[in-house]
From TrEMBL:
Name of this chain's protein: DNA-binding SARP family transcriptional activator
CDD domains reported for this sequence: BTAD
Family: Belongs to the AfsR/DnrI/RedD regulatory family.
Native species: Amycolatopsis iheyensis
Alphabetic keyword roster: DNA-binding, Transcription, Transcription regulation
Domain Bacterial transcriptional activator: from-to ranges: 101-243
Molecular function terms from GO: DNA binding
Domain of life of the native organism: Bacteria
Domain OmpR/PhoB-type: 20-94
Entry's Gene Ontology BP terms: phosphorelay signal transduction system; regulation of DNA-templated transcription
Amino acid sequence: MVLFQVLGPLEVRGRDGVTGRPAGGKPATVLAVLLVQPNAWVAVDRLIENTWQEQDAPASAEANLKTYMWQLRRLLPEYDGGPRIEGRAGAYRLRVGPGELDADHAEALAREARAALADAPGRAFTLVKQALQLWRGRPFEGLDIVADEAVERLGELHRRLRETLADAQLGLGRTGDAVTTLQSLAADDPLREDVWARLMRAQHTLGRPAQALTTFHRARRVLAAELGVRPGPELMKALRSVHGAAAPERPRRELPRAVEPLLGRDRELAALDRALTGSAPVAVVSGPAGAGKTALAVSAAHRVSERFTDGQFFVDLHGGEVTVAAALDRLLRGIGFPPALIPSDVDERAALWRSELAGRRVLLVFDDAADLAQVASLLPATGPSAALVTTRARDFSLTGARAVRLDRAPAPLERVA
């Protein structure tokens, strides 16, 4: 039988069998502090600190505390034939039996529901609904006590119960109800990627892939605005599993045939080797038309290609004719995203590309870039990928990139750009 209810305003079932809120502010505060750690000894100093938070404790604080304990002992039923509240030098404890505290009862129901979920979703659904009905508001609502950890723990329990509810609803084929439950969870705690991922999968199960894609982009915007981060592995995995956007079975190998031997470029090739295998592997090869930029870039890319097991891309930007949106569309298709699921907004498309690239080892060659603006959104922001850019622009500057400047090709064999 539940005697103590803390999942909302504090209520107690007294000796007379009537459940209600304890009369008097300070005795109720003392009882709440004891209930934060049931069956544990709570120091008198902590009880005094919570009871007189807004003012200095009076000299009679310990005497007053004894009075409050006497009042509570009169209110509460006995425990196993003895006093409900026990005292010793410098501390008190409240004896609470199994099932007498609503928070403990909710925890037991949560465990039982999770255990039943796989084989008996109907029973899990019933148990989790019983547990959720124990909540009447914020734990310890209306009482000013130092119990942040306890309130957070109970809040986490409530979240787990709602997640179990969604799982049970899915197990019972009530997918629409599961989507509603998960949407509520995402609204209450929008920084939890696992909830967004589960919502996407539920929407997909319901036959709503467009909604699942909208959910992904909403989560991405929230994470970027609140935490300054991109979607993590769990959310990206949900996107791929929901929309069938797994990487192709055979990674792309798009590098053109290399010019061999490439005469007179040993120093430049060595510089590009170091750049493309370094900690921030981005390199820029600049020079006039006919200087052999493409030949050098392709040759350098072939020399390190085996390090980039998730593919090698060659994108001819045609001196500015290819738009950023078109290049991103081409690259996202190349790693396996269905065309219909690629965002139309260029910024969202770029964010999706960076997120996907962060978990891959890809080599990118962007040939004949007009300026930095044409390639800035295409470059890897982090992770093991590398990029090599060729350009005719003399003022092309990219922070952190290795720059190689070419004059005219030293031999006709190099003139492929």
